[in-house]
Amino acid sequence: MSDTSSASIPADEAVVVQKAPFAVDVESGKKYWWCSCGRSATQPFCDGSHKGTGFVPLEYAADKDGALYLCGCKATCKSPFCDGTYGKL
Q1: pLDDT at 76
Q2: Is 23 helix (H, G, I), strand (E, B) or coil?
Q3: How far apart are alpha carbons 57 and 59 in whole angstroms?
Q4: Residues 2, 11: Cα–Cα separation, whole Å
Q5: How does 13-44 read in b/e, with b if 16+ C-beta sit within 10 Å?
Q6: 50: number of CA atoms within 13 Å, CB side?
Q7: Per-residue confidence (pLDDT) for residue 7, from 0 to 100
Q8: Phi, psi of 66 (to 5 degrees)
Q9: 8-state DSSP, 87
């Protein structure tokens, strides 16, 4: 899934998981934790793999049911949403 092994990425740099968004379905009233470090095995959601890095997951509370496009490159300026930055990587 990842373009580069997370073991070779410094702890202060995010891992580019994929150069495309993750399409996910969310449910109204449910909370989701977006992985900001790129090290999670449960992308695009956090599994705690950020421990020991300067990264923390970002909480997203869904206000309606539907599909979202969450950032896969971890370089977005609109976290947790994809803003197309992957096209410049």
Answers
A1: 97
A2: strand
A3: 7
A4: 15
A5: ebbbbbeebbebebeeeeebbbbbbbbbeebb
A6: 22
A7: 63
A8: 155, 180
A9: G
Task: With beta carbons less than 8 A apart as the criterion, state whether 35 and 44 touch.
Answer: yes
pLDDT along the chain (89 residues), means of 10: 60 94 98 98 97 96 98 97 96
* HEC readout, 13-74: CCCCCCCCCEEEEECCCCEEEECCCCCCCCCCECCCCCCCCCCCCEEEECCCCEEEEECCCC
Amino acid at the residue 85: T
Question: pTM of the prediction?
Answer: 0.88
Q: In the prediction, which pLDDT does 81 show?
A: 98
Q: Which residue has the tokens 């379905």?
A: 25
- Provide the residue type at 80 as one letter: P
Give the closest residue to 59 by CA, choosing from 85, 38, 77, 36: 36
8 Å CB contact between 41 and 47: yes
Residue 5: the pLDDT is 54
3-class state of residue 7 by DSSP: helix
